[in-house]
């Protein structure tokens, strides 16, 4: 229960691997060594005091409610400021008298009570009944809170926006039993970012059951091999997109029961789909009645006190990552989602906020290394992320962790063992920003091809990144999806095959396909798509809120438009599926970064090779090129394996897919051979050696 790190001597970091990876880090080795030392001290403390990660991260098996075979229940809660504590609920008619279910305090501020069974094997607290912890605290008197480790909370908006805690202990025959093993660790990560609540076309909140039955088959058919589930951790306000968490161990009851979420994940595993949780440890809801804020009546139990513990822009509380019990809570939270629900890994939200004292507010990152190792770095936040990644990869070697970081922190995706922060991937957040800026401000005939390629390829060497053209951020009201930027109001009038193919729709379909293929094949070692964007979802995303009369009009996915064979959305959907299945065959995401042999500003042509494939993009708005010469390293006969101009993808069918392209052994654009190809305007082609098809 110590709140400080151990003084046990720790091994010194060997910085040679870091210097080999990036010699420019030499002036900052002291900062890297300092954070490593702090990490090593914490790990030594966890080993010596708690028995290592294995025991320390199982806090959920000690705290909260534990039900035993004989029917007895033990409840524990850390609340050091409390003077008295009682467990109250439906089971004891909310009796707050001093003797009824009074809890005992240990020297570390942990309160506990064991409730004998009602009958042999029958718990005294009924399944799904309501309860709270009632405490007497200095200066405030009696306060009542939802247990911090509670696994189920529900909300009845007709009564109050505040959540109520539920004792979740279904009978054995109602507990979900997992049937499928986790998929093997992916090297080619194709992520479908999804939100269960918006996954219905109806004007309401979607359910886990519906997602399992209706959405998972779509994802599988498209060829995505991972889903990233948003807004699962219970959050106070639906419109927050899940980023104001109040109950960290509770799966959101808006969509159904915990057993139904388990069924969703297990079904995904049966389809070979990896399931990632969008985990929010960067901040917490400031709610008092149904959150962690002021849990034991103090400002500083789980969070920093005063201004340091508050995020100005997010209006939320900030964890004290330097506190022993906070580390127990958060590391156990990760372990809980892995064990209880069988998630395969995490996308960590708000990593930039966690790593810097300024939280990224009003700060631009130039890429200068001094920004990453100076006084502005929150060492405790960085070290927590190191501990989290180290623990996850030690206990679950196949786990996947992704960082949402806009700063470009060096060594973020390098193993903790050699001085990194330990993530497997970072999100390439500059890529979608680039596309939105281009579509807002510049006609495509004036696009800077060199800058586009630079943005797609500008990533830290040996650190993997997830590329995406647009995520949920670009779909939200106040912005527009790429499809909407490209086609705008004509999406309402000219997306039927029975209507005229206007210049705007033709351009929109063509560029939507080209942008996604370019990002997928050149931008990273993983790829992400937000649900619906694969077929150019016609409208933005806006959750029910006071400003829109609590409407669900834009908080749903209109699957009907892609399912209608008369509408052109199907062409974008078909092309997206073709990209995923082609990557599944050739594995370019796990290959070395693409070698770009041509960036021609006048012709608006990009040519590169990756994983043995030859990618050719002609972004010119009017010019098509006959016998266009492109370089290629490996000689042989090449065939087209994907053309964005194909009729099934809404193209004009100007490319003969049966053509064989034979290389000539003359150097071109620093490649040993060349071939000549017809490349129409606004078309992307992918060629492969005929022997590999």
Which features characterize this protein?
single chain, 693 residues, alpha/beta, Immunoglobulin-like, TIM Barrel, 8-stranded parallel beta barrel, 6-stranded antiparallel sheet, globular, Branching_enzy, EC 2.4.1.18, hydrolase activity, hydrolyzing O-glycosyl compounds, hydrolase, GH13_cat_dom
Describe the overall structure.
Among the domains are: 15-57, no CATH class; 61-167, Immunoglobulin-like (Sandwich); 189-290 and 332-507 and 523-564, TIM Barrel, CATH 3.20.20. The strands form seven sheets. An eight-stranded parallel barrel has the order 10-11-14-17-18-19-20-21. The protein has a six-stranded antiparallel beta sheet with strand order 22-23-24-29-26-27. The protein is of the alpha/beta class and 693 residues long. The longest helix has 22 residues, at 29-50. Helix 2 crosses helix 9 (379-395) and helix 4 packs parallel to helix 5. The chain is globular and about 90 Å long. The protein is built from 16 helices and 29 strands.
């Amino acid at each position: 229960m110590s709140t400080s790190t151990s003084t046990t001597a720790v091994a010194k970091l060997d910085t040679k691997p870091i210097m080999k990876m990036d010699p420019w880090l030499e002036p900052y080795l002291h900062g890297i060594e300092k954070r490593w030392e702090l990490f090593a001290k914490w790990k030594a403390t966890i080993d010596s005091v708690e028995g290592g990660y294995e025991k320390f991260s199982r806090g959920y098996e000690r705290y909260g409610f534990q039900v035993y075979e004989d029917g007895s229940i033990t409840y524990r809660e850390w609340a050091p400021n409390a003077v008295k504590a009682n467990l109250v609920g439906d089971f004891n008619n909310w009796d707050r008298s001093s003797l009824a279910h009074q809890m005992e305090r240990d020297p570390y501020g942990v309160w506990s009570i064991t409730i004998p069974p009602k009958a042999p094997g029958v718990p005294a607290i009924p399944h799904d009944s309501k309860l709270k912890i009632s405490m007497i605290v200095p200066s405030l008197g009696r306060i009542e809170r939802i247990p911090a480790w509670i696994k189920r909370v529900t909300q009845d908006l007709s009564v109050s926006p505040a959540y109520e805690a539920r004792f979740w202990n279904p009978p054995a025959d109602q507990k979900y039993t997992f049937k499928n093993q986790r998929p093997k660790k992916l090297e080619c990560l194709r992520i479908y970012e999804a939100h269960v609540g918006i996954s219905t076309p109806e004007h309401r909140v979607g359910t886990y059951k519906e997602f399992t039955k209706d959405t998972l088959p779509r994802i599988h058919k498209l060829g995505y091999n991972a889903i990233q589930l948003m807004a699962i951790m219970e959050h106070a306000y639906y419109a927050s997109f899940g980023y104001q968490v109040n109950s960290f161990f509770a799966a959101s009851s808006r969509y159904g029961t915990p057993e139904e979420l388990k069924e969703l994940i297990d079904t995904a595993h049966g389809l070979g789909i990896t399931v990632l949780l969008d985990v929010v440890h960067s901040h917490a809801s400031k709610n008092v009645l149904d959150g962690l804020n002021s849990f034991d009546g103090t400002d500083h139990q789980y969070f920093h006190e005063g201004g340091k513990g508050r995020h100005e822009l997010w209006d939320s509380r900030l964890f004290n990552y330097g506190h022993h019990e906070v580390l127990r809570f958060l590391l156990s939270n990760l372990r809980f989602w892995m064990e209880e629900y069988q998630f395969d890994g995490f996308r960590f939200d708000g990593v930039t906020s966690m790593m810097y004292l300024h939280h990224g507010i009003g700060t631009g990152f130039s890429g200068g290394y001094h920004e990453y190792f100076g006084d502005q770095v929150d060492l405790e936040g960085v070290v927590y992320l190191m501990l989290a990644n180290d623990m996850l990869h030690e206990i679950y070697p196949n786990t996947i962790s992704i960082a949402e970081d806009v700063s470009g922190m060096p060594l973020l995706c390098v193993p903790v063992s050699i001085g990194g922060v330990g993530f497997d991937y970072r999100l390439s957040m500059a890529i979608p920003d680039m596309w939105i800026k281009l579509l807002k401000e510049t006609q495509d005939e004036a696009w800077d091809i060199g800058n586009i390629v630079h943005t797609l390829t500008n990533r830290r060497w040996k650190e993997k990144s997830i590329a995406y053209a647009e995520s949920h951020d670009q779909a939200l009201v106040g912005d527009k999806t790429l499809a909407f930027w490209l086609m705008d109001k004509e999406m309402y009038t000219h997306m039927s095959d029975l209507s005229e193919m206007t210049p705007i729709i033709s351009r929109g379909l063509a560029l939507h396909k080209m942008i996604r293929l370019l990002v997928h094949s050149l931008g990273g070692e993983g790829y992400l798509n937000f649900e619906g964007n694969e077929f150019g979802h016609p409208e933005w995303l806006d959750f029910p809120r006071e400003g829109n009369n609590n409407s669900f009009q834009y908080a749903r996915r209109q699957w009907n438009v892609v399912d209608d064979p008369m509408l052109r959305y199907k062409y974008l959907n078909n092309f997206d599926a073709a990209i995923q299945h082609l990557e599944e065959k050739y594995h370019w995401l796990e290959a070395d970064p693409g070698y770009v042999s041509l960036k021609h500003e006048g012709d608006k042509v990009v040519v590169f090779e990756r994983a043995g494939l030859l990618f050719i993009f002609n972004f010119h708005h009017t010019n098509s090129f006959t016998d266009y010469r492109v370089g290629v390293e490996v000689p042989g006969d090449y065939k087209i394996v994907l053309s964005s101009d194909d009729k099934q993808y809404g193209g004009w069918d100007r490319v003969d897919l049966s053509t064989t392209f034979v290389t000539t052994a003359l150097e071109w654009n620093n490649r040993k051979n060349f071939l000549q190809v017809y490349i129409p305007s606004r078309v992307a082609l992918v060629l492969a050696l005929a022997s590999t098809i």
